[in-house]
Specification:
InterPro entries: Enolase-like_C_sf, Enolase-like_N, Enolase_C-like, Mandel_Rmase/mucon_lact_enz_CS, Mandelate_racemase_C, Mandelate_racemase_N_dom, RHMD-like. By secondary structure, the chain is an alpha/beta fold. It has 2 domains: 132 residues, Enolase-like, domain 1 (2-Layer Sandwich); 218 residues, Enolase-like C-terminal domain (TIM Barrel, Alpha-Beta Barrel), CATH 3.20.20. The protein is built from 13 helices and 14 strands. Strands 4, 5, 6, 7, 8, 9, 10, 11, 12 and 13 form a 10-stranded mixed sheet that branches. The protein has a 4-stranded antiparallel sheet with strand order 3-2-1-14. A hairpin with a 4-residue loop joins strand 2 and strand 3. The chain is globular.
């Protein structure tokens, strides 16, 4: 049985292709920890995760000093055992973003190894529920854009074949959000799906007001209306809102999703593989939501989430927001508005190693 001989760690920073601004922050850069697990027989698995501008150095230190050394000399087969051992080893810093992001980078590499060894695409190894998933775009909906640009870019997205688009909300006055979205809805028609994202900007009173004001526009969901730790507030809102409430990108453990689902505090689960701690806990959350008849529409990381969405039956959408183009040799395939499941074994991501080597700001090898 192969044994893990060394783990290579790299951090690659990727600038967004366009200015990305929401109600509370700007997306400055994607700090991308890349993990390469190499076994004594030459087999390997590649994984990654991300931050949006801060914390990358802390993730790399946690990987180098604490997590990667735990796997040296171990078999890569027992992914669940490794994930739990690493979780308990970092108990003093969990549940938290830095620990979950570090766990995700290693866990995705282990699953990549397993799928490659099985000579299967990841989505088939994990269940193979479907071969494609509807796709919406986020790249044209940023909050700083004037209304005419917002309309123009959303119309262009429809013409490009996307089935929906997500727009940011959270202008100082609710009437501004309504006016912007009404203009877009008029331009794209009633059949094109529109989603909105508040990035946790509202109080419960403001969330109630804005959900009511936006209801007539016919939105697919209202995403992160309030701080993610306000589960009770989301339960109140979800009970009254005519727009489905979506949460998940700021939750970092299956237990946190369990709280939302038990309290009926959301209608759509947006579990992010890079923030939940990897594929192992992502699957737990997706199947928990499935058992409660709740749809999964994951946040970000489209190149990896297309495989996970195709693995489970309750996935509804993949979010198109490209960020790996500069360090990969192919992009996610979209056909008739649907993201297509990869055909190659493993995660389905073809890395450009020459570009990764050139862009690596930090490098470590753990033996």
């Amino acid at each position: 049985m192969p044994i893990i001989e060394r783990i290579e760690l790299m951090q690659v920073d990727l600038a967004p292709k366009t200015t990305r601004q929401d109600a509370i922050q700007s997306f400055v850069t994607q700090e991308t920890p890349v993990v390469r697990i190499v076994c004594d027989d030459g087999s390997e698995g590649i994984g990654y995760s991300y931050t949006i501008g801060t914390g990358g150095s802390s993730v790399m230190a946690l990987l180098k000093d604490h997590l990667a050394p735990m796997l040296i000399g171990k078999s890569p087969v027992e992914v669940e055992a490794h994930w739990r051992a690493m979780l308990f080893h970092t108990h003093a810093t969990a549940v938290g973003a830095i620990t979950s992001i570090a766990l995700a980078a290693i866990d995705t590499a282990l699953w990549d190894w397993r799928a490659r060894q099985a000579d299967l695409p990841l989505w088939r190894l994990l269940g193979g529920a479907k071969s494609q998933v509807p796709c919406y775009t986020t790249e044209g909906g940023w909050l700083q854009l004037p209304v005419d640009t917002l309309v123009k870019q959303t119309v262009a997205a429809k013409e490009q074949g996307f089935l929906g688009a997500k727009l940011k909300v959270g202008k100082p006055r609710g009437a501004e959000d309504v006016a912007r979205l009404s203009a877009v809805r008029e331009a794209v028609g009633s059949e094109f799906e529109l989603m909105v994202d508040a990035n946790q900007a509202f109080t419960i009173s403001e969330a109630l007001r804005r959900a009511d004001a936006l209801a007539e526009i016919g939105l697919a969901w209202l995403e992160e209306p309030m701080p993610a730790d306000d589960v009770a507030g989301h339960a109140r809102l979800n009970a009254r809102s005519r727009i489905p409430i979506a949460v998940g990108e700021s939750l970092y453990s299956p237990g946190q999703f369990g709280d939302y689902l038990r309290l009926d505090a959301c209608s759509i689960v947006q579990v992010d593989v890079g923030r939940i701690g990897g594929i192992t806990p992502w699957l737990k959350v997706a199947h928990m939501a499935e058992c409660m008849n709740v749809a999964v529409s994951p946040h970000f990381l489209m190149e990896l989430h297309v495989s996970l969405c195709c693995a489970v039956p309750n996935s509804a959408w993949v979010e198109h927001i490209p960020q790996l183009d500069e360090v990969t040799t192919q992009t996610m395939v979209i056909r008739d508005g649907h993201a297509q499941a990869p055909t190659q074994a493993g995660l389905g991501i073809e890395w450009d190693w020459a570009e990764i080597e050139k862009r690596s700001l930090v490098r470590h090898t753990v033996r």
